Each structure stands twice: as C-alpha cells, then as structure tokens.
Amino acid sequence: NAGVTQTPKFQVLKTGQSMTLQCAQDMNHNSMYWYRQDPGMGLRLIYYSASEGTTDKGEVPNGYNVSRLNKREFSLRLESAAPSQTSVYFCASSEEALVYEQYFGPGTRLTVT
Amino acid sequence: QQQVKQSPQSLIVQKGGISIINCAYENTAFDYFPWYQQFPGKGPALLIAIRPDVSEKKEGRFTISFNKSAKQFSLHIMDSQPGDSATYFCAASSRNNDMRFGAGTRLTVKP
Question: From the CA of A62, how many Å to the nearest CA of chain B?
C-alpha cells in the first residue's frame, strides 16, 4: 500500500518548456488535488478532481492543465513553463466526504530557469 | 488575500515546554479545521482536526482550541519534544473541495 506516489521527484526546466507531473493513489479515493507550496505562502490549490471524469479550478489555476486519467491517476501539465512556476508541487487524495483529511504525496521540486 | 492567517512564522521552544500556534479565518462557510505536520522533504500529514461546533479536541499531547465567535483556532503541543520539530500548517476546509492553508509555522524544539 504505497498511498500517494508522484513522479518525478525533481525536475529542472527552461522557460517555455512543457512537462507533465504524474500522481497516483491506491486508496480508492474519489477526490484528488494538486497544490503548490511556496515559502511563506503555505499550500495553494491549483486544481482538484472530485471524481473520475471531473476537474475544477482551485485558487491558482493559471498556467496549468490537469487530466483525471482514471480513478487512480491525476496529472498536472505545464504547457509553457515560467520562472514563477518554480515551486514544490504536491498531489493529494481524500474520500469524497472528508475534504479535510487529505493524504499527500512526497512532492515534486520543480525549478524553471 | 490569504483566507487563513497563521502566526508565528517560526517558534523555538525548550524540550518539555508548550508550543502554541494560532490561526484566524474569515469565511464562515468553512466546516472543518485541520492541522497538518510536515517534515523536511516530505508531504504534509494530517495531525488533528476539529469541527466548528466543538470548542476543544485533544489527541495525546496535541490539543486544538476553537473559538467560533472570534473565528480563531490554535494548536497546543504539550511537553514538546525534539521529534516535534517540523513545520505546522493550519487549514480550513469546506464541502466543495476547497481547503485553504495558513502560511505555516516552523517549530524547533531544543533539547
């Protein structure tokens, strides 16, 4: 039982490059989330998916797209990376009715130069 | 604007002391108030959570105090230990999958 897994762990991109961050969970949760963590700002929600086939914008969605591939997997795509997207990205999942009880992955540290 | 405000940014406590972290929120639609603990290089993990109709919740050395009228809540860590050294985030969640985090408090417990 791995919980929430994320790949890659680290990534360096040049401005304008694209990449996809992968996330998978094995807890049979309906809801999945993508956050970014920046110093002094806590975690901010980028997108979430309440169930397979649905996605919604969070607090800071600009510059990102997501895909809920199936119940287990939720990916985050940066189409044209910018230095402002340098951050640590966390994926999380929860049971649908327990939004406050989220299980987080280990994170992806992304640097955009 | 940050919907959940957390203080202090950093806290140093002696082993055996009490650590206190405070948070305030604005949106009365929030219906659960969790605290998360994060160690360096790891994702946050749920520590303890409280509903707004409860004024206090205790789990071991960790206690949440909640003041609904003031829209404030706090985490108390009794008998703080070096192993408690981590970053703590308060949060507020609502049923529409919205969870807002405070900026975090870096706690250092000195032996």
Answer: 17
